[in-house]
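Here is the promised in-class demo. Please do not try to memorize the tokens; focus on the logic of going from shape to residues.
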């Protein structure tokens, strides 16, 4: 029996209770099918990568017989044989190899879907919590804010300033959704965007003898103090830079810690000290300071967007893409693109 019209005279169509129930059942069935397909694909990818049902079962945390049954069901539903099995070996078929990339892409999309659902559940549906390191220039920050607004205008961006160590801790505790980190560092449990490589030169007083050189060998800086960010902000990056300097003949007379542009400028002008930075550093255009490239380009800043594995939803990826574009567009100098140079776990590009 249909619901009678409202006594207020509303002319809305009548709705059957059975129709409502049937619609809910249909939607629920679709979601169950989607979840079942995701589980099938997870099994397929695990077996394809392990080429061993026992190892794949342990990786997935399931028993081997149900795993074998899921693979058989997937083969029946797709109408193709995915694996050749023997008592000793499992090999992927040509059809299976052709479908593997598609399966991985579908799983990546499903992980993004689940990440979005988790952020909604945690109350962050319209909010992306992101972080940038303190040494990013104001021009780059402005480009990131503008670019993200174009890509994800419906998402509020909560932007923090923090070093790599702090970002890694906050990403691990899910206090941040995405960040821009410096390499090298421990990236276990993280997914990365492209690793961008930005050549570092030396910043020194305009009247320093080395400022008259077209390129400065690191060994020529002997006797100068080095102004460097505090080690606690990125220990591996800090140590890697000092090690590279030592290998090329430069051991600083002393290491002075500083990050703020005004503070660094004061140290450069009042003491026999130098700093390393990209051509587009905060002090570009300062008449009292000179930036010179280093001979052989031994030093580089490497950074990439990073986020917890399985939590890379559309907003996170929009931020990662925006950061990559903004760093490329705001990099100055002639050597903007000579990559990619292949690194693991991501590609490294000169900018």
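The designed amino acids, position by position:
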């Amino acid at each position: 029996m249909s619901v009678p019209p409202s006594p207020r005279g509303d002319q809305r169509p009548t709705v059957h209770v059975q129709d409502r129930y049937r619609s809910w059942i249909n939607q629920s069935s679709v979601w169950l099918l989607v979840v079942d397909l995701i589980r099938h694909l997870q099994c397929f990818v695990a077996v394809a990568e392990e080429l061993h049902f026992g190892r794949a079962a342990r990786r997935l945390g399931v028993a081997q017989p149900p795993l074998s049954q899921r693979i058989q069901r997937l083969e029946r539903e797709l109408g193709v044989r995915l694996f050749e099995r023997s008592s000793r070996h499992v090999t992927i078929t040509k059809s299976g190899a052709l479908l593997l990339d598609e399966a991985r892409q579908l799983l990546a999309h499903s992980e993004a879907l689940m990440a979005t659902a988790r952020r909604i559940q945690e109350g962050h549906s319209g909010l992306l919590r992101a972080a940038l390191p303190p040494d990013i220039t104001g021009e780059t920050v402005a480009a990131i804010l503008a670019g993200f607004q174009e890509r994800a205008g419906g998402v509020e961006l909560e932007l923090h300033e923090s070093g790599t160590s702090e970002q890694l801790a906050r990403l691990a505790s899910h206090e941040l959704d995405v960040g821009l980190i410096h390499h090298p560092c421990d990236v276990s449990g993280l997914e990365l965007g492209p690793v961008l490589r930005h050549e570092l030169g030396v910043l020194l007083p305009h009247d320093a003898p080395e400022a008259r050189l077209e390129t400065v060998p690191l060994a020529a800086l002997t006797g100068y103090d080095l102004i460097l960010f505090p080690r606690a902000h990125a220990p591996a990056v800090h140590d890697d830079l000092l090690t590279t300097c030592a290998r090329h003949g430069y051991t600083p007379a002393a290491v002075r810690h500083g990050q703020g542009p005004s503070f660094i400028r004061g140290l450069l002008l009042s003491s026999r000290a130098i700093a390393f930075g990209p051509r587009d550093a905060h002090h570009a255009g300062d008449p009292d300071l000179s930036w010179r490239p280093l001979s052989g380009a031994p030093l580089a800043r490497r950074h990439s967007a990073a986020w917890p594995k399985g939590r890379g939803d559309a907003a996170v990826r929009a931020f990662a893409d925006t950061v990559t574009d903004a760093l490329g567009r705001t990099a100055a100098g002639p050597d903007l693109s000579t990559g990619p140079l292949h690194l693991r776990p991501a590609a490294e590009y000169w900018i």
